[in-house]
Design goal:
This protein has a single domain, classed as monomeric porin ompg (Porin, Beta Barrel), CATH 2.40.160.40. Helix content is 6%, strand content 51%. It is built from 1 helix and 16 strands. A 12-stranded antiparallel barrel has the order 1-4-5-8-9-10-11-12-13-14-15-16.
């Protein structure tokens, strides 16, 4: 009887705690991988990327820092809107650090379906980047994205593809005319931990400069995301450029905080 009682208490604890501790596997773009899953946050839920920090070693003696706070809102069923305000800091050995607001990024992401035996999760996204006032000559650009996620016995597979709409400087997340990425991850539910790796191809990436126009650049990355509390998840990631030329390393770190629990039928 004592064993049965403990089992019942444990089951009750799991049913009340696990729903609030599963957001760690809902990966976002750049947190920790560039390739994200096709799942969106639930309706009426809010998620804040408070101060995600990215450090890129562009070349010897040149480092680019980016802080991009972001807010995601589940505005409709299977639909979320994201607002981001990236701030870039360029450091060079022989010059002062340049700080600028890169602009405002807005994206709507809609999940088309729930995963079934025959179909993966599919989602489409449309975003716009409005450049900051300090960017002379920069124009507003858009990005059309397609995402897919498939759950297998050993983990998940994610496919992302993006196409730049418009011309000019697209900002931090839309600096390439097109992007494509594949990622795999594995979740450890009872440890609230996700580990993943990716391979990404991009055209006209920001960090290669104007001299590499028209060249496809490859990069590989790995990262992990851990649920620190029922509402807070932290992430760490690393990426390396694989294309010819001087290698560029990118390190990322951040935390996501859920403002409200996703609403569920039958649960107050």
């Amino acid at each position: 009887m004592r064993t049965a009682g403990l089992a019942m208490v444990g089951a009750l604890a799991l049913t009340t705690a696990l729903p609030a501790q599963t957001d760690f596997y809902n990966t976002d773009r750049g947190r920790p991988l560039l390739t994200e899953d096709a799942l969106v946050i639930e309706r009426r839920a809010f998620e804040l990327q408070a101060a995600p920090l990215t450090r890129t070693r562009v070349a010897r003696g040149a480092t680019q820092w980016t802080i991009a706070p972001e807010l995601a809102w589940g505005v409709l069923p299977r639909t979320q809107i994201e607002f981001a305000l990236p701030v870039g800091i360029a450091e060079r050995a022989s010059a002062r650090a340049d700080v600028e607001v890169e602009g405002l990024e807005i994206e709507a992401l809609h999940q088309l379906n729930a995963e079934t035996i025959g179909w993966p999760v599919l989602a489409i996204g449309v975003g716009v980047h409005v450049p900051g006032a300090t960017r002379d000559g920069a124009s507003t650009t858009g990005m059309l994205r397609a995402l897919a996620t498939r759950t297998l016995r050993w983990g998940r597979v994610h496919l992302n593809a993006g196409q730049l709409l418009g011309a000019g400087d697209g900002g931090a997340d839309a600096a390439s005319r097109w992007t494509a990425g594949v990622a795999i991850d594995r979740t450890f539910v009872f440890r609230s931990l996700l580990v993943g790796a990716e391979l990404v191809a991009a055209d006209l990436p920001r960090m290669t400069g104007a001299g590499s126009a028209g060249r496809t650049e490859w990069s590989a990355g790995a990262g992990l995301r851990h649920q620190l509390s029922p509402r807070l998840a932290g992430d760490l990631g690393v990426r390396r450029r694989l294309s010819a030329g001087e290698s560029a390393w990118t390190l990322t770190a951040g935390a996501a905080y859920a403002f409200a629990r996703p609403s569920r039928r039958g649960v107050r």
